[in-house]
Model the fold of this input.
Amino acid sequence: MARQNDLQSADVAPENSPRAPEAGALGRAPPIDLDRLRSQTFGDEALIDEILQLFDRQAEEMIAALQEFSLAQRHSYLHLAHKQVGSALGVAAGPLAQAARRLEALLRAERPEPSQIGEAVEALIANLVKTRAFALRLRTRA
Done:
């Protein structure tokens, strides 16, 4: 019950509050939509924690892979971007899913602009870092 109260306070805590998850850099909405995540897991706090643990491991691997990005391996990265869309949706991380979709669309383009792809890769990494930090704060409140 304490964990559920902690998660609920994360939903309503003022943005400047020390216990409020960071949202400003990704827009007004928090990186993870807690109401949607609760709905997806039928409110099962243990399942939420398990999903966030899995997301953390996947995000760490994705960040490492994206830091090695090479346009020559575009098709491999297309697969990774698509995989990240699914991972983001699995934790109700809308801004992260949007960043991954943008990279995926650019990589699917017939003649992708390298500077746009570079910006999309950086944006995806930034979203991964922010969403991962948000998820960690949620998990440590348990």
